[in-house]
Write a structure and sequence with these properties.
Elements lengths: L1 H5 L2 H8 L3 E4 L2 E5 L7 H16 L5 E3 L7 H9 L3 E2 L15 E4 L6 H9 L3 E4 L3 H15 L3 E5 L5 H10 L2 E3 L5 E3 L2 E4 L2 H11 L5 H7 L10 H4 L3 E5 L5 H19 L4 H4 E3 L5 H16 L4 E5 L5 H11 L4 E4 L5 E3 L2 E4 L8 E4 L7 E7 L5 H16 L7
Parallel strand pairs: 2-18, 3-4, 3-5, 5-6, 7-10, 7-11, 11-12, 13-14, 13-18
Antiparallel strand pairs: 1-2, 8-9, 15-16, 16-17
Helix pairs in contact: 6-7, 8-11, 13-14
Length: 387
């Protein structure tokens, strides 16, 4: 069933042909690493297995299992209901219900609620996410605030932040909680680093990060010892740079001799995210391309970062679905750094055409095949042809 839903013989053949597809005036070079990663493949597999293993019981997902609308539609078609949909209530769950936890993980609070309701839980949380949780919990236990490079609204970062708030019991018997700060990018990291160095006001800091800090966060206290982590799908180079920014700021404030006791960092970018970023960089380095197509959900962080990398080098189009390739004169895409889809006109050049193609870790190969076949039609056949 999984193979029928997501596999592509064409993509398998292209991989065996040096990741290159040629037809008429069109050449397509696939990145050497793209599409479903192990964690996503495992999560989708578990969702299908859960539906089959419990055929007579209601099966729910807490929300999207991965950030790909096609995959989520397919899972809904199996009869799996999403608690994030209108009309579904966690309060109505019972021990008869089966609940699938997504690859991003869920918050500690939501997990406790599901356990208390007696539901059967199917945990698909990715191992790379679990590795981040292990580190932020260790930070909290040792009195370090977790600085998380991520999107505070993203399911994975919310789950990681909840892990950073583990309950702690001090030597005096008093119970407290760990703390966290989420920074989106270098700009936000710079603001936090300035505060560490003694610049900027406490009030401005709390206004800027009001939705990205733990309850009771006191920047004068909780930025004295910090440990860096990240949402696993962020841009690797940016995460590493942000870590160095905090290291430098702590050294400037407290002196290099105190860094060991005040700063910690672990590279928690997942290997699949890193491999896909490295592969697109290598593709851009070794091939002369006219443009780049990046396929994946608009809310997929790892896909958006692939689009960011390619957009710095050449015309790039992040499409959520093969249907975004409307015609040779119209493409629906989300520009790198934008929050909204837009329409580009006359995007497909005439003459010999070389296109780079990659997809995010939550995108199945059958959608990559549809993009390749559509590009073939637009380049060599009817530019307004149907799929």
């Amino acid at each position: 069933m999984l193979a029928a839903s997501y596999h592509s013989d064409l993509v398998a053949d292209i991989k065996a042909s040096e990741f290159t597809f040629q037809s008429g005036r069109l050449t397509i070079h696939l990145a050497r690493e793209f599409g479903f990663c192990y964690g996503v493949d495992r999560a989708v597999d578990y969702a299908y297995q859960a539906r089959q293993r419990f055929p007579d019981r209601p099966v729910f997902l807490t929300g999207e299992i991965i950030h790909n609308p096609h995959v989520n539609r397919q899972i809904r078609a199996q009869g799996v209901r999403f608690l994030s949909d209108a009309g579904e209530s966690i309060d109505a769950l019972s021990p008869n219900d089966v609940v699938i936890l997504p690859a991003f993980g869920i918050t500690v609070e939501l997990l406790e609620t599901l356990v208390n309701r007696g539901c059967t839980l199917v945990d698909t949380t990715c191992g790379s996410v679990l590795n981040v949780w292990k580190n932020v919990k260790r930070y909290a236990e040792h009195g370090f605030t977790s600085v998380i490079h991520g999107k505070y609204w993203h399911e994975e970062t919310r789950a990681t932040a909840s892990q950073a708030q583990v309950s702690l019991r001090g030597a005096d018997g008093q119970t407290g909680s760990g703390h966290y700060l989420v920074v989106l990018d270098r700009t936000e990291a710079g603001l936090a680093c300035d505060f560490i160095r003694g610049r900027g006001s406490r009030e401005q800091f709390l206004r800027t990060f009001e939705r990205a800090i733990s309850p009771g966060f006191d920047p004068d206290v909780h930025l004295q010892r910090v440990g860096c982590a990240n949402q696993t799908t962020m841009l690797s180079s940016e995460s590493l740079e942000i870590g160095e920014m905090f290291r430098t700021a702590m050294g400037d404030r407290y002196g290099a001799d105190q860094l060991e006791g005040r700063f910690r960092a672990f590279d928690t970018i997942c290997s699949a995210t890193q491999d896909r970023q490295d592969a697109i960089i290598e593709l851009l380095r070794t091939q002369t391309l006219d443009l780049m197509i990046v396929l994946g959900g608009y809310n997929s962080s790892n896909t958006c970062n692939l689009a960011r990398i390619s957009a710095e080098r050449l015309p790039s189009y992040h499409i959520a679905d093969p249907d975004g390739l409307v015609s040779a004169s119209e493409i629906h895409h989300k520009p790198a750094g934008s929050k909204h889809e837009t329409i580009a006109r006359d995007w497909l050049p005439s003459g010999p055409l070389t296109i780079g193609l990659t997809s995010g870790a939550s995108t199945p190969d059958n959608l990559v095949e549809r993009v390749i076949r559509r590009l073939d039609i637009l380049a060599n056949g009817d530019p307004d042809g149907e799929f």
